[in-house]
Amino acid sequence: MASYLPIADDEKGHELDLFCVPKHYENDLDKVIIPHGLIMDRTERLARDIIRDMGGHHIVALCVLKGGYTFFADLLDYIKALNQNSDKSVPLTVDFIRVKSYCNDKSTNSVKVIGGDELSNLSGKNVLIVEDIVETGRTMETLLSLLSECNPKMVKVVSLLVKRTPRSSGYRPDYIGFEVPDAFLVGYALDYNEYFRDLSHICILNDQAKEKYKV
Ligand code: IMP
Ligand code: MG
């Protein structure tokens, strides 16, 4: 089982005014739950664990857009740092896939995969899927079944966050940054109807903001 840093259900978080938060979001957020620095520290360790397990063969890092892009960029920076500072190194290439399953703060039943036509390039490769958050697990299960048709050599999944929720299918990624309470989280590229990607810390959205940015 993957180890992870647990964020407790009764985690009080940190007052917003202890950190730098964009002015345009000040009234939309309750607390900072995971400060940016802690995300970076945990990501550095995930990079080390991934290279330990996958470092023997060309890695294709597959970013699940849009929510995964910040984590993807930071994780790859740490993997690159390991690659350029050790006697052993592996080629790393990147690919991107777009998946959409959310409307407002609810997971919809349909998982749409957009831009998956180059998936056949993954045949024979060590594929690392990089995701922002696993909630029900449906997105990842859909993606994994699509990918298995392309016969990759190995597939591993890293998700920065996994939500503790009764809606989970039971699916668990191979690498997990944090396990988080069943609340709607934004920041560090996690969005609510496309807002809050431009926020560095992971925060809990307040109910007023759910109304304000509703579509
Ligand atoms: P799943 O298919 O239910 O596991 O949902 C996964 C996708 O839903 C993630 O990749 C996110 O894009 C989105 N998602 C789930 N929970 C949250 C959240 O708390 N904030 C923002 N996006 C979320
Ligand atoms: Mg996502």
UniProtKB/TrEMBL annotation:
Function per UniProt: Converts guanine to guanosine monophosphate, and hypoxanthine to inosine monophosphate. Transfers the 5-phosphoribosyl group from 5-phosphoribosylpyrophosphate onto the purine. Plays a central role in the generation of purine nucleotides through the purine salvage pathway.
Enzyme Commission number(s): 2.4.2.8
Gene3D superfamilies named among the record's database cross-references: 3.40.50.2020
Biological process terms in GO annotation: GMP salvage; guanine salvage; hypoxanthine metabolic process; IMP salvage; purine ribonucleoside salvage
Class in the EC hierarchy, top level: transferase
UniProt-annotated location(s): Cytoplasm
Lineage: Eukaryota, Metazoa, Chordata, Craniata, Vertebrata
Cofactor: Mg(2+)
One Pfam short name: Pribosyltran
Gene coding for it: hprt1l
Classification via InterPro entries: HGPRT, Hxn_phspho_trans, PRTase-like, PRTase_dom
Chief location category: cytoplasm
Superkingdom of origin: Eukaryota
The Phosphoribosyltransferase domain, residue ranges: 38-192
Alphabetically ordered keywords of this record: Cytoplasm, Glycosyltransferase, Magnesium, Metal-binding, Nucleotide-binding, Purine salvage, Transferase
Name of the protein in question: Hypoxanthine phosphoribosyltransferase
Family (UniProt): Belongs to the purine/pyrimidine phosphoribosyltransferase family.
Subunit architecture: Homotetramer.
Reactions this protein catalyses: IMP + diphosphate = hypoxanthine + 5-phospho-alpha-D-ribose 1-diphosphate; GMP + diphosphate = guanine + 5-phospho-alpha-D-ribose 1-diphosphate
Organism expressing this protein natively: Cyclopterus lumpus (Lumpsucker)
A GO MF label: hypoxanthine phosphoribosyltransferase activity
The protein's annotated pathway: Purine metabolism; IMP biosynthesis via salvage pathway; IMP from hypoxanthine: step 1/1
Gene Ontology cellular-component annotations: cytosol
